[in-house]
Specification:
Number of helices: 6
Keywords: Repeat, TPR repeat
Strand content: under 5%
Pfam families: TPR_10, TPR_12
Structural class: mainly alpha
Shape: globular
CATH topology: Serine Threonine Protein Phosphatase 5, Tetratricopeptide repeat
CATH superfamily: Tetratricopeptide repeat domain
CATH architecture: Alpha Horseshoe
Number of domains: 1
TPR repeats: 30-63, 72-105
Number of strands: 0
Largest sheet: none
CATH class: Mainly Alpha
Helix content: over 70%
InterPro entries: TPR-like_helical_dom_sf, TPR_rpt
């Protein structure tokens, strides 16, 4: 609906509650950081979005197996941000990592694999 201010406020409140009640490396914290990163991105605040997505990735790397689909999601989100910032080589590496994880953890016809392939092709077309 485009009300990013309220969305951001709600996600920050949820994050604060999780930070006060959950261990430092908990999946809900990663999800909260991911959601905050998405809102920042919608507000065209790519620097803060990147920080939030990197925090989500850090948590996920500490608690999930190396080929977990949530890691692919984080790599994809960070890749999208680098693409928006014009850092296409970094974006390509991150999207390729997302695809690699997806191919090991998801069915081959899964929509996320198609998304990762699509993102890779978009970046290659710009390089």
């Amino acid at each position: 609906m485009g009300d990013y201010s309220n969305a951001f406020s709600s996600h920050r409140k949820a994050l604060k509650i999780y930070q006060e009640t959950l261990p430092i490396y908990h999946p809900h914290l990663a999800t909260s950081y991911n959601n905050i990163g998405l809102v920042y991105s919608k507000m065209d605040d790519y620097s803060n979005s990147l920080l939030a997505h990197e925090k989500a990735l850090e948590i996920r790397k500490n608690i999930l197996p190396p080929n977990h689909p949530d890691l692919a999601t984080s790599y994809n989100n960070i890749g999208m941000l680098y693409a928006k910032k014009g850092e296409l080589s970094k974006a390509l590496l991150l999207h390729e990592r997302a695809l690699e994880i997806g191919q090991h953890s998801l069915p081959q016809n899964h929509q996320d694999i198609l998304l990762y392939k699509h993102n890779i092709q978009l970046i290659k077309n710009k390089l």
